[in-house]
Structure formats: C-alpha cells, structure tokens
Design a protein that fits this description.
The protein contains 18 helices and no strands. By secondary structure, the chain is an all-alpha fold. It binds phenylalanine. Phenylalanine (PHE) binds next to helix 1, helix 2, helix 10 and helix 14.
Length: about 475
C-alpha cells in the first residue's frame, strides 16, 4: 500500500522540473569550490576516478534512499519518519532521522549563506578590477580584509539570504520552480562561456591532463576519505533536502532516470569547474595544491594577469553565486516544510522565520572570522563547531540511519513499490549496495571525521585526555 497521506505541501509541476531543481540543489559550492581543490590536493585525475567510484557506491544509493522516503510519504522529513515508523512498526527513535536531517540542513544553510555572500562580494571585486595586475600579497589582503570587515560580511550574508527568501516565500511552483528555470540555463551558458575562455586563454591541455589522467600512485587514505565525503555531500544527501524534494516528486517520475541525471550533470559540472580553474591557474604557473584558498586567492590572482580577466572573473563569481543560490533554496526547504506542517502557518511566514533563524546562526560564522576569532572552545571557533556538528556529525549520522532504515527496517516490498524500478534486479542491487558498502563507508566517514577533528584540537590543547 502506498502511503500518500493528505499533504498540505505542493508538488513539482512535472518530472523535469523536479530533476532540474534537484540538480540545482546538487550543483553548489561543493562542485565549484570544493571539488576542484580537493582534486588538486589529491593529485587530480586519480582522485576524480576514485570519486566516481564513491559516487556510484555511496552517493547514488543513498540519494535513491532519501528520495524514496520523501516520495513514499509526501511530507517534511520529521512527519515522513513519523508515518514510516507507524507503517513499519519500528522504534519511534527513527524519527530522529527526520529531526537530524532538518537540523543539518538548517545549520549548513547558516554558513553556506556566508560563503554565498562572499561570492557575491567577489562578483564586484572582479568587476571593479580589484584583481587586475595584483600581486599575491594584494589578493591575500583583499580576502583577509573581507573576512575582517564584520559589517560588510553581515551585509553580504543578509543579501544572500534575502535572495533565497524572496524566491522561497512564493512557494514551490511560483518561487523555486520559476527561479530554477532561469538559474539552470544561465549556469549552463556561463559554464560554456568560461570553458571557451579557459580554452582560449588558459593552459587547457595541462588542466585536462591534470584533471583526467589517472595516476594511481597519488592515491592515499586521505584521498579516499575526501572522495567518500564529497560523493555524499555533492548529491545533497543527509540534509533533508532530497527527502523534501522527493516528497514533491510526481508519482510517474522515473527514479532511475532522475537519479542518474542528477549525478551525471552534477559530476560534469564539478569536472568542468576544475578544468576552468586549473587552466587559468596553470596559465599563470600557479600551484594546484592551494586547497581551501584556491577560489579566493589563486584563481583571482590568475585572472588578474589574464586578458579579459575582469569580465570573465565576474562571470565566474556570478556562476558561483547562482550555484550557491539554487543549493541554498534546497537547504532551506526542509526547515520551511517542517515549520509549515508543524504550525499550519503560511508558506511566507514559515520561510521568513526559518531564514531568520539561519541568518542569526550565520552571524556566529561571520563573527568567527573577526570579532570572535579568539573566542574559542577547545581551540575551535564557533564556525568550526557548527561546521563539525552539521557536516561532520549530523550528516553522516543521517546517512547511516538512511541506509539502515531503508534496507534493514523498511520492508523490501515497501521500497520496491515506491522505487518502481523497471527490473527487479536493480532493486536487489540497490538494497545490497546501500545496506552494506554505503552503510559501512558512511560509518568510516563518521569515525574518521570525529577522530580527525579531535586530533586537530591537540595542537592548541595538548592537555586534552585523548591527545
Ligand atoms: N550539493 C551541494 C553542493 O555541492 C550542497 C547541498 C547539500 C545543497 C544539501 C543542498 C542540500 O554544494
């Protein structure tokens, strides 16, 4: 029996708008900022291949699981789990899966919006020629100044969240769908334009070799951990976003086609971003291993010395901002749907309230970069804690619970009738992979993540019991 309870929530107009919106959620800062730099740190092509394997074995199976739970219940993650608990006669503790998802999405949105705001600021820095001919020290100063400027950061952070609210408050169809229909084609045009630019003015061949050549000797334990974590994060699993987008999914949409399209397009965008960034960075003889600061230091430095860097630099940061925008819409959605269903308030009111909460929490991240820089707990800033609790703890815990619940608690018959794969063998393969490889890998991610964070504290606090 399919459990399509009466729901106050809207649904997508068609299966393609669902795929478009879910892809928009998947393509985010993770693809344009994080993927290129972790690929760079781990030796390029070898890492890309490893990531593809992790995507197939962890990201995609869990994406299917999360979409399935939403689709089966058509409610926000918390209520979805309440229904599923009743339906499967399982422990009420499973509702925590829903609660943690909503909380993770909300917390991640709070700092995602701060970085989204920085991308907005960089559109203007690029456009006003602040990178032009700049020396490395100037570029570093530009970024440190932005981080140190509390008022400025608050303005950019607020502006970014405001962009998210004005879209989201109009509702799923009139707000999110309409904006996604503009954002996605625009992103495509920008990516193509930037690829053409990188081809013409960058060291494209070197970049292609770097991103696509397989050099297995580069691979290590760190690379595997980065690849597993990214495969998970990039398809937006573990934050309630896909559960709620799945709840809005039309009943006739094919799960297989949707998931494969989302994963494929998301990966292509990550690779394209890497190709663009490294073509420009290598053209200036800069280092691929600049990590975290690749997008805010190394790339602007390269752009500042390349022809038309001012124009294409602005385009690049417009692309980053658009990608962050469509992801932020998805991060806000579980919280909004939960609030709406819990209180019965209007969509607009729910959106403003949840976004206001994320804004307030985000101020903590803003202050971590300046006024609260030395206000630390066990040597870690507020931002570092929020990031760890959400991405390091909640998200893997949700992933773990997702895998176990969908395979070991929910009956095979229930998942089969919701997924409706055309061939039973796909359902079997999905169950096998999700219930074993994916679950074990997420456990590894969780344990290693916590271990890494704890060890990281030892530098400043050698007296801690575990150091
Ligand atoms: N997948 C997004 C990225 O790569 C992050 C995200 C997670 C967005 C969850 C929405 C929901 O940046």
């Amino acid at each position: 029996m399919a459990t399509n309870h009466a729901s106050a929530l809207e649904g997508w107009t068609s299966r393609w708008t669902f795929v478009l919106a879910a892809t928009g959620s998947a393509i985010g800062l993770g693809n344009i900022w994080r993927f290129p730099f972790i690929a760079g740190e781990n030796g390029g092509g070898a890492f890309v291949l490893l990531y593809l394997v992790c995507l197939a074995l962890i990201g995609v199976p869990l994406l299917v699981a999360e979409l399935m739970l939403g689709r089966r219940t058509r409610h926000n993650p918390v209520r979805a789990m309440q229904y599923l608990v009743k339906e499967s006669g399982s422990s009420r503790q499973w509702v925590w899966l829903g609660r943690f998802s909503v909380l993770a999405g909300f917390m991640i949105l709070s700092f995602y919006a701060v970085v989204g705001g920085m991308a907005l600021a960089y559109i203007f820095h690029a456009a006003f020629g602040d990178f032009a001919g700049a020396a490395p020290a100037d570029i570093v100063r530009l970024f440190t100044r932005l981080q140190a400027d509390t008022d400025g950061l608050v303005v950019w952070h607020s502006l970014f969240l405001l962009l998210v609210v004005v879209v989201s408050m109009r509702g799923l169809r009139r707000g999110i769908e309409r904006s996604i229909r503009v954002i996605m084609p625009l992103m495509l045009v920008l990516i193509l334009a930037l690829l053409a630019y990188a081809w013409r003015f960058g060291a494209f061949e070197t970049s292609a070799h770097f991103m696509l050549d397989f050099a297995p000797e580069q691979l290590g334990w760190d690379a595997l951990l980065d690849a597993m974590t990214h495969a998970f994060y990039t398809v937006s699993v573990g934050m309630g976003a896909m559960m709620i987008y799945g709840a809005y999914m039309p009943p006739h949409a094919s799960m297989r086609v949707s998931v494969l399209s989302i994963a494929a397009i998301d990966t292509l965008v990550g690779i394209a971003a890497g190709l663009i960034i490294y073509a420009l960075v290598f053209a200036q003889g800069l280092d691929a291993r600049s990590g975290f600061s690749l997008m805010f230091h190394t790339l602007p430095l390269a752009l500042g010395h390349l022809p038309f860097g001012q124009f294409f630099g602005s385009l690049f940061f417009v692309l980053v901002a658009l990608a962050a925008w469509s992801s932020a819409l998805a991060l806000l959605e579980p919280g909004v749907a939960w609030f709406q269903e819990a209180t019965g308030w209007s969509r607009a009111a729910a959106t403003w309230i949840v976004a206001l909460g994320a804004w307030l929490l985000g101020l903590g991240t803003v202050f971590s970069f300046n006024t609260w820089q030395s206000a630390t707990l066990l040597g870690q800033t507020f931002f570092s804690w929020i990031n760890f609790i959400s991405s390091g703890l909640l998200v893997p815990v949700v992933g773990l619970m997702l895998g176990i619940f969908c395979v070991w608690v929910l009956s095979a018959q229930a998942s089969a009738e919701t997924l409706r794969f055309p061939k039973p063998v796909w359902h079997q393969v999905w169950r096998r992979v999700t219930g074993t490889v994916a679950v074990v890998s997420v456990l590894v991610i969780l344990v290693m993540g916590v271990h890494g964070y704890a060890v990281g504290m030892c530098g400043g606090n050698p007296g801690l019991p575990w150091c």
